[in-house]
Amino acid sequence: MIEKAIAEKRVGYIISALENYCLEHGEIIGIGFCLNKRHAEFMAQVFNKAGIPSEFLVAESESVVRDNVKRRLVTKEITFVFVVDIYNEGIDIPEVNTVLFLRPTESLTVFLQQLGRGLRLCEGKEALTVLDFVGQAHQKYSFEDRFKALLSRSRKTIEQEIKTGFSNVPRGCSIQLEKQAQDYILENIRNAINTKRNIISKLHDLIETKQELKVREFFESYHVTPQDVYSKKVTVVGLAAQAGLLKEYEADAERERLLASALGRLSFINSRRWIGFMQKIIPLILLSKGSLLHSLTTVERTMLTMVHYTLWGKGLGDLGERFASIEEAIYWAINDPRLYQELMDLLDYQFGKIDFVDKPLIGFEDEYSLDLYCAYTFDQILVALGKHSEQKRSSFREGVLYLAEKKLDVFFVTLNKSEKDYSLSTMYQDYSINEELFHWQSQSRTTVESLTGQRYLNQAASDGNVLFFVREYKQEGAFTSPYTCLGFADFQSHYGSAPISIVWKMKEPLPGFVLKKTVKV
User: What sign has the CA pseudo-torsion 134, 136, 140, 145?
Assistant: First the structure.
């Protein structure tokens, strides 16, 4: 009886919140996501008792019942349907204008699917109201992940966003937190921040549960990103060893530091071709103990050199006479069973995260090891373009690279520049105009009359090529941001001089996920 009284009191609070934040009851078309059948049935009963017509559905409900409830909801015969394990995905009711979260879920995917039930466009639908009543049911419930998904363009921390009233929500949206909810969520986020101590605690939980260290499962199941770990200049294996969770294991200190840095760089890669190559070639190097690989194509040899620079950041010659070949240098770096497995697990994890279609540079598939819309570090790009060699690292540091032998101009663009990192003379105006056109400014000293300026303006006529690499910011947390390959472009128009403002037409239209980051807001 006490439990029922508490539950009814909570429902009373939910109904009160509806009256404060939502439309008139007769205008609501709502879905409430519940914990189980008993919960959904109870919610429907109490809402009906309060004069808010409601039904409940579960996964076992027959299709004829579902169709009838859907019809009654859309025609406003009922106000709410309370559901369990349905309407997460695959079924559209675009008319839904109110969503109630009444149960916690550890799955960010499920959370976004449930939110998506209300985000469908519909004629006459002006807004979606989302009320989240998830209480202190589970200390591992991550509010931060939910807010990150809604605030993907913000550079503020989630804590800063909460304290400043969510100033970076998408246009047309607002988030309101009651004072008690705000305090609780801030505490939840502070406790969930992946400090070294918190990560070790999660590793302890993983190993205690699974009896072994599974790095991919750790990233996928414990709200830990690879960057959370590698920003601390340590590997997952190294952290577990420090915590005494790996018996009779001690990594070589130099190798562990080397791998921690390299894994951090690899945690941004998203090229299926390059990841697939590494998944094939790295085990082969381990098996052959660093013997020379003579059967590689030119592009494969380049990709292998990209692996070497990702590990060492230097050419063979820059390492003295320590190694006879890059195969030998790679073999030394991976010659630890646990660190090798962490590397392979990370590659598997990165491959599994790819959610877009990449493809080689059109017309240059046999020349470059780069793929459209994929992310690469500066060094990886310079290897792919032949600027860094197996033996020696080039000294190139500028934002514009011209390879005369290839008749190729390469533009490295940072879209959001801060005065801390860039001088006034390098705060160029670079941005996408639309999916085909990109506005770019030359270096401040480049005039229309100069040889460089003339090369840009006569690019198409002179059979030259222009290749774009773009990143949003110089830094991503503790890491230098990688660049995304946008592909080749042709000269379209220009104005001004020193700098020259040029509009380039991309040879391949930019996909939506790239355009979202590069378009000028």
Answer: positive
